[in-house]
Amino acid sequence: MIWLHLIVVLGAIFLGARLGGIAIGYAGGLGVLVLAVLGVTPGDMPLDVVSIIMAVIAAIAAMQVAGGMDWLVDLAARLLRRNPRHLTFLAPVVTYLMTLMAGTGHTAFSTLPVITEVAKENDLRPARPLSIAVVSSQIAITASPISAAVVFFSGLLEDGDTGVDYIGLLSVAIPSTFLGCLATAAIFTAVDRVRGRTRLQDDPEYRRRLAAGTVAAPGAHATRELKPGARRSVVVFLTGLVAVMTYATVISDKVGLVEDPVMGRDAAIIAIMLSVAAVIVLVCRVDTSEVLTAGTFRSGMNACVCVLGVAWLGLTFFGAHEDAIQGAAGGVLEAQPWLLAVALLLASALMYSQASTARALMPTALAMGVAAPAAVAAFPAVSALFILPTYPTLLGAVAMDDTGTTRIGKYVVDHPFLAPGLVAITISVALGFGIGAVVL
Question: Is 23 exposed, middle or buried (0-12, 13-18, 19+ CB in 10 A)?
């Protein structure tokens, strides 16, 4: 029956990917229902992950309505425009740091138009900085202190007495992924220079569109009027981020400052993020009705439904066949732990979410005997959301680049995000094994 159940799972995922958007979550629920009809007991719903996403998105949306996101984008725009020659390096740094701070890759939407404009202004092909920036925003999820994927995985490691805690995970994930993204930018910058593909004027698709008059001229550097509470909202949000990391540190078994905390880390993150939202509303005079229509709120709630459906589907399948999967793959993964990264990469390409992939596969991987340091090193591979060109930020980059250099080919996977994404994950995982051997 395992093969029939696997067909149901893959069918639901492909249906969701074809329908797109929130329908991925809908299809996940449909898959759970079909499996239940076939006699499979539904697994635990990933309400812990969904709750964390909701709380973080609530705080980010409040900050956006207060003008904080506009202020951050203005800072990013000034940095990129002052250093256009280093755009391919700085664009992924900006999107990485924004995701690291916010715990969601959807913050990249706000910087993609700026990256495109700076590239056009300086005769650079937008495809390269855009593609690496999108990939970096996805990989940074595995290094964000408040992302649902990190919170779940660190909790799993701690509950399993693996010797690796929240701080240990971040001490490997942050340097390995950040350096992995920078190394990827360096590699593809060198490749483009060798191939002579850096200048926008040399791109045939751009010249065709320019002749047809379908390429807009670079826009003027409009000065945006910020809301009075814009900076305050960012300060409040960053204070909350520091509070989360501080609390997670003091309750850590390795630090031992608080042996019996009143709240667990998950509950603390949810409480702190909701409190951050409340403070922003109070001190920045935010109209709460606008929060519900904010772009980050809509995309975040969309992510919640997707994670709920897809992760629940994955947990149902793996829970029903855990013994068979362990028997078939346990010895292989224990002997070759790097293969876990391959499994996570392929699963995340279908499951559409870092948190969903970690929630579905990591418990089984640890149960199979994969050592905690190896699992931590492989963790960035849950970020292969770029393989199929269906993720919102990827599609957003394609839509915003009117020069035509960022485009999806006729074979679906022949797009500019695939190669940088695979290279970035490969380097991040390799660095994770090296750094983990030292710090864990």
Answer: middle
